[in-house]
Structure formats: C-alpha cells, structure tokens
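User: Structure tokens for this complex, please. No commentary.
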Amino acid sequence: MQKYFETLSKCSLFHGINPSDMESMLGCLGGKIIAISKSDPIFLEGDPANLVGVVLSGIMQSVQEDYYGNRSVLSILQPGDSFGEAFSCASLESMPISVIAQKDSEVLLLNCKRILSTCTQACHFHRLLINNLIKELANKNLSLSKKIRYMSKKTTKSKLMAYLSDQAKTQGSAEFVIPCDRQTLADYLGVERSAMSAEISKLKKSGYIDTKGSWFCLKSENTL
Amino acid sequence: MQKYFETLSKCSLFHGINPSDMESMLGCLGGKIIAISKSDPIFLEGDPANLVGVVLSGIMQSVQEDYYGNRSVLSILQPGDSFGEAFSCASLESMPISVIAQKDSEVLLLNCKRILSTCTQACHFHRLLINNLIKELANKNLSLSKKIRYMSKKTTKSKLMAYLSDQAKTQGSAEFVIPCDRQTLADYLGVERSAMSAEISKLKKSGYIDTKGSWFCLKSENTL
DNA sequence: AATAAGATGTGGGAATTCCAACAAAGGAGA
DNA sequence: TCTCCTTTGTTGGAATTCCCACATCTTATT
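Assistant:
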C-alpha cells in the first residue's frame, strides 16, 4: 500500500498530510484499496452509505438511473476526487446513486464516520482531515451547481457550449481534452447523444469549434 | 436579538447549541440580522463570498440567470435553511449565484471563516458548529442531487411528477403544500411555465392529481 | 365595491428534441 | 490484414417544448 502514499498526499482530502503519517492515518480510518474493472460498480444504488471513496487511478462516474433506464451522469470523477462523502455525512442509510468505473480504476475506501469522530488515539491529523472534508463537500456542491447551470440552458447547443467553454476556462486553454466519450457527455448534460452529435457537427461546420474524439478546440470567443 | 435565540436553536446549523450560549456565539461569529423585502436580494452574483446566511422567517431562493435572462432557481430556502456556506467553504472569491427574498424575510448573516477557524477564546461550541456545518453541506448536496434528478427526466410531466411525489414522500402525505408559485416551480424544474401549467391541467383532468394554488393532492400511487 | 396588478390557464404555430434505424469510422484481437 | 465490436455521425418522422398572445382568476389597494 505504501506505493500509493505519494498519490494520496496529492488528493485534496489528504492535503497537508505528510506521506510518513499516511500509514497510521489509513489504519485509523480503515483504509482499503480496491481495483475496479471498466464498467464495474464500486457502489450500487441501495448499498449502505458509510464509505467514502477516493479515486487513485482511472476514471469513475456517479450515475442515477430511473425506471425506464434513463441514465444520468452526476459527476465524472478523476484521480484525487472523492465520492460518497455527502451521503455518509448526511447520515443516509443507503446510497441514492451508483458509482461505476469508466475505465479500469483503483479506489481507496474509507469509513467516513471515522473521519468525523475523533478517534480514541486523538490522531493529530483529524482536524486537518475535517477541514479537507469540508472543502471537498463544498467543491462537490460547486460541481453539482455547474452541472445544473449546463442543464438549465434550453437547447442542446447551448448546454454543450456552456460545458465546453467552462472546460476551456478550467483547463486554461482553448484546446483541451474532455474526460469522457460522447455518450457519457450526453448523459451528463441531459441530452440525447445523437442530437448532441448532430449539434457538434453543425458547430464544426460553422467553424465555432473543432474536435476529434475527446479533443476539442474553441475557435472564437463566441460563447453562444 | 434575543427574541431569535429560540428560532436559531432550531436551525440545523445551530443544532445542539444552548439558547443561553447563543449570544456569545453570535458575537464570536459576527452575527447580524437583516430584514429583506420581497424580491430584494441579500446576495448578488459577484458579491464577495465570505458570508453564510440562515433564513429566520419568510422564504428565500437562490437563483442563477444567464445572458438572455433565463432564470434558474437552484433551491428554495425555508426557515432554518442556510445558504452561501458552500462558496465560502470552497474559498471562492465571489458568489456565482444570487439569493433573493421570495417573501418578506429575515436572515442571519455570519462570517463563515469564523466557523471554520477556532477562535482565540476557543469557544466550546466550535466543534459542534463544524459538525453541523458538515451536515449542512452534505444536505445541500442531496438537495442539488434531487433537483438534478427532476431535471434529468425528459418530459415536463415526468419532471413535475418526480417533484410532486418526492414532496408527498418528504411531507409524509399525499396532500401537501409546495413552498412556491408556478413560475418559481417552473424555474426550479427547468421547464416553461405555460407548458407546465398545461401539463398540470391535463393531470388534473386525468384524475392523477388535484391542485389549487400551492395545495396539491396525489390521487393514485401512479408515479409516472 | 371598484380597480389595478399579478398569477395562472389556454391555445396555436415554430422550433427543438426524441427516437429508432442505419451508415461510417475507429480500435482490439486473431 | 481481416473481422468483430464499439463509438460516433446522419437522417427523418413523431412527439414535445418553446414562445407569444391573451383570457381568466386571485389578491391587494384604494
């Protein structure tokens, strides 16, 4: 497990924690590392909600599905991101969402309650962890708000452009790579994949954007 | 300000805090009570993000608006609910949303950083406050996820029914009152008001629901 | 009670999305 | 290289939403 300590110290949940303290801390929190193959779930809707996950490698996605099989992607989780903390911190008894691997991935699982409750040994990193957890929860709020902002646009085109220009801003360049395929992007924006593909084609032909696979380039400042 | 201590002790942010401790705590946190008239803002997009608000009376709503004036209601805030904490805890420099009064309301404003940082006097309620804040952030996450679940449905009718059956479940009765008018509900669900009105009429005629003003009644278990 | 202002319901044409089916392109493995 | 399988792009008709205009109902004010 030591080989992950470097990676872990870069996760925002463990920000400020010394790699040398990692071992005792993970012991205290009941840490466990798990490998997940592409398309497999780590959490399924209905599972008990007491674990927090931290993505170590690969990409995960949190999804909801309704009776009719309509899939909604809530968030795309990259290495360093955590998930599940909101449900545990809100004391839900079961998970209202599933989390699945978009690619082969590795995940660290922790017992969330042990972050919240000071342990018997009064580990000195608890205060730090709690501050990090607050920041994580707040950031998750922001990312949900962002998704809502995209979904609130009325047309497929404007949802797409809102997302793409946000990506350009976040990644600091008009050229960037998105962390998902077309189907996942459509499920994230809440639109039909084929309709979105059609819009992408139109935007390409009009010269507003260029794209190939997961690579995109915004041609003008025209944020429709 | 004393007259609010009872109310405050019922807010989840202050859960477990004794009304008699309220005064020193509010002093420590820089508490300030403000009255807001209907339609007036307490926060505007772009304002510095360092305050947390707690609704004491009335109803507030957090909203986003885009270039074209399309309004999106992120959440409807009732007495006891707090707002703004996510932006402050995520260390944003400015608010990405506005918060306005849906009715004449009273709001308690606190300096959020002072909740997070142990004060010089090491107030004994800090630990409690931080736990409450975590729960608030987690619950806000859940409420955003709910909104996303409604918005992810494809038709206006199913968005509406998802919301209404959730309300019935939350309020524990097939009869209930929603905390907003039609326009606000439409802006919350991300649909057109007039189209939503039409759907409501159809659902009434089909006998699935009954409604008058903010009162609703679900007639069958038929969660479309 | 009269009036005004705001909220809600109704209607229809234009625009958009959904949906399903299929074509084309890309990638992995034999 | 060839084949299979997955992803992406294309198309057209049906269904839905948007948008505007206006009727009706409600509430507040004088």
